[in-house]
Amino acid sequence: MSCADDTNASQWMPNCFAELVAAEERGLIFRGWAPQMPILNHSAVGGFMTHCGWNSVLEAVSADMMMVTWPRYADQFYNEKLIVEVLKIGVSLGSAEYASKLEVRDHVISGETIAEAIGQVMGDDDVAKARREKAKELGVKAKRVTDKGGSSYDDVGRLIQELMAWRSSVVHA
């Protein structure tokens, strides 16, 4: 089968792109759900462009990752403010329009804007260095609370105990 006849090709992927990646033996194409945590924790990854969904934010913080933010809807704009303005571990692309999957935005974020934001995250100036240091600091804190004896670890343990006690009371009632 030639790549021109590939009916399984994604609508967003350029024609023959999968074949090019396979032939070059360079890169990966994930169809469906990608294993985000292992990717974020890989040493080759220096930044993360995110839609600012809460799970992605937590995973990025846990991976000591700086972020380029591109929210679309719901709580994502609030999460972006947390990342960029409060935690100071991200750079905004300037997305300001709420848009669901079905809506088309009037404002298109340019390639130049994206490249500039990536440059700010990956740069070696004092601001980028401070952002990188803050991301590492937050990552250490995130890991600490999920380790044995950490608050999140202990809270999950208490939740499990409470659910087991509740289940026992319901079964024996």
Automatic annotation (TrEMBL):
Pfam families: UDPGT. InterPro entries: UDP_glucos_trans. Keywords: Glycosyltransferase, Transferase. SUPFAM superfamilies: UDP-Glycosyltransferase/glycogen phosphorylase. One of its GO terms (molecular function) is UDP-glucosyltransferase activity. Belongs to the UDP-glycosyltransferase family. This is UDP-glycosyltransferases domain-containing protein.
